[in-house]
Design goal:
Blueprint: H1 5-17, E1 22-28, H2 46-53, E2 56-62, H3 68-77, H4 81-84, H5 103-109, E3 113-118, E4 133-135, H6 145-163, E5 178-181, H7 189-204, E6 209-215, E7 222-225, H8 226-229, H9 266-296, E8 303-309, E9 314-317, E10 321-323, H10 329-332, E11 336-339, E12 347-354, H11 358-365, H12 380-384, E13 394-400, E14 404-410, E15 414-419, E16 426-430, H13 450-464
The protein binds calcium ion (CA).
């Protein structure tokens, strides 16, 4: 493009008149709400807390599917899992979506510079998303699409073979294991990711950018420098005080297999919880490197920073559950913090938001036209008025094997879940009275008050409503 001298004089003014807000999307793998700014008394996350002071902390934010590939495919496409039909970690994101623009691609088409380092989509399928810079390992450009696709196919074949015959609900599970290392932060993958993100931000800060920073921890295995383990002592760590018989009213499909964890002693379980916290604090310190760069480059006034845990994580809930893949509160709910220029800072929002809302929210904050096909609603009004009334329901679903589904709906007070449309069990929890979901008043044959029955019917109607109508 040729500019006359006069054009060049005007150019900065034109840019000032139509600022294009940058996006820094920070994905944290397997991060649940056991962090400082969400009120955990033990877990140290000074940098997530620091981001929360600069943004809105969503206290009722729910993923639409509690597993990496399905939740990320849903979030990055702006479509619900029923539309993406990605219900496991072995289905490539585009299988049923074809050539739609995933979130970073939409920004790229609008003229943004786009880059990601670390895990944004599910590891093996990162090649399905186009970025200007795409690095699963910091500093290593993603190899050619063809080569990766071949690797995928081979990997999928191997995985599917391994999976055949496995019990329902065993998906999403790596062995609980942890290792304190003597390496420096920068030598760990997440440490390298944070420093590479800082470099890319410095180099590309003058153009509108969409940058994805994907941290792997606190995903298993819990490998982190020793100093993060030393931040906690075992005396601080308590297991949930689940009442005896809690599992008697839980439909079997609601639970996942224990994968050998049932042989652990309580002390070993507490060590595992400590290791999860250590991995969280390590990741938090790497986030600090990225936030320092935001300060240093004075980017807060023209950059949206959105941090999310891709789904929650169980830490021995219901005296059995670790990991994810349930629609209980601890796996469906996850942290979501949004800093947006000119919006509220340092406040909490108690309203319901879903991850399918993130795509339209970001594009609206950046001043871009609404992308087609969105199945969530932009929650930008909540960034101005976090207490205002908002959507009635949030939906999370999960599959057990190929064709058995659990579908759950959360309102601000209740959770209601059906397994195989109710044939394999129903759950109904009142979070005002029972925040741990210990008392299922729907199953097997609990006595309910007339009021409870009426409330349950309302929840059932919400679960079966056309979900596209659940925008506020
Ligand atoms: Ca129970």
């Amino acid at each position: 493009m040729d500019f006359t001298r006069r054009d060049l004089l005007w150019l900065p003014l034109v840019q000032m008149r139509s600022p294009r807000t940058n996006v820094l999307l920070i994905a944290v793998d397997d991060l649940n709400n056991r962090i400082g700014c969400y009120g955990d008394p033990v877990v140290k996350t000074p940098n997530i807390d620091r981001l929360a002071r600069r943004g809105v902390r969503f206290d009722r934010s729910y993923c639409n599917y509690p597993l990496c590939n399905p939740t990320r495919t849903s979030l990055l496409s702006g479509r619900r899992p029923e539309t993406t039909q990605v219900y496991n970690n072995n289905t490539p994101p585009r299988t049923h979506l074809g050539g739609i623009a995933f979130l970073p691609e939409y920004y790229k088409a609008q003229g943004y510079f786009t880059a990601r380092v670390g895990k944004i989509a599910h590891g093996t399928y990162e090649y399905q998303l186009q970025w200007d810079i795409s690095e699963s390992r910091a500093g290593v450009p993603l190899a050619s699409e063809r080569k990766l696709r071949d690797e995928d196919t081979a990997l999928d074949r191997a995985k599917n073979k391994k999976k055949a015959g496995k019990a329902a609900g065993s998906e999403g599970g790596a062995k609980l294991s942890w290792t304190p290392t003597n390496r420096a932060d920068a030598e760990e993958p997440d440490g390298a990711t944070a420093r590479r993100i800082a470099q890319i931000v410095r180099e590309h800060k003058s153009q509108p950018f969409f940058i994805g920073c994907g941290f792997h921890k606190p995903h298993l295995p819990w490998v982190a420098p020793r100093k993060y383990f030393d931040m906690y002592s075992l005396d601080q760590i308590k297991l949930p005080d689940t009442p005896a018989g809690d599992r008697d009213d839980i439909p079997p499909l609601a639970l996942t297999s224990t994968q050998g964890d049932s042989e652990m002693t309580d002390r070993e379980r507490r060590q595992a919880v400590l290791a999860y916290h250590a991995a969280t604090s390590f990741m938090d310190a790497q986030l600090g490197v990225v936030l320092d760069t935001m300060d240093e480059q004075r980017l807060w006034d023209n950059t949206v920073v959105l941090l999310f845990g891709d789904h929650g994580w169980h830490l021995y809930d219901h005296q059995q559950l670790w990991r994810k893949m349930t629609v209980f509160e601890q796996a469906s709910r996850a942290p979501l913090i949004v800093h947006a220029p000119g919006k509220q800072e340092g406040v909490a929002c108690p309203r319901l938001v879903e991850y399918v809302d993130i795509y339209p929210t970001l594009t609206e904050l950046s001043g871009l036209p609404k992308a087609p096909g969105m199945e969530g609603a932009s929650f930008t009004p909540l960034l101005d008025s976090p207490q205002r009334p908002w959507k009635k329901a949030a939906y999370t679903m999960v599959a057990r094997g190929a064709n058995r589904f659990g579908r759950s709906v959360r309102t601000e007070r209740y959770r209601y879940t059906e397994w195989e449309d109710g044939k394999s069990g129903v759950e109904f929890y009142d979070h005002e009275l029972d925040p741990n979901e210990w008392t299922n008043t729907a199953w097997p044959k609990r006595a309910r008050t007339a009021k409870q029955s009426a409330q349950m019917e309302e929840m059932k109607a919400l679960l079966h409503a056309d979900k596209k109508l659940t925008a506020p």
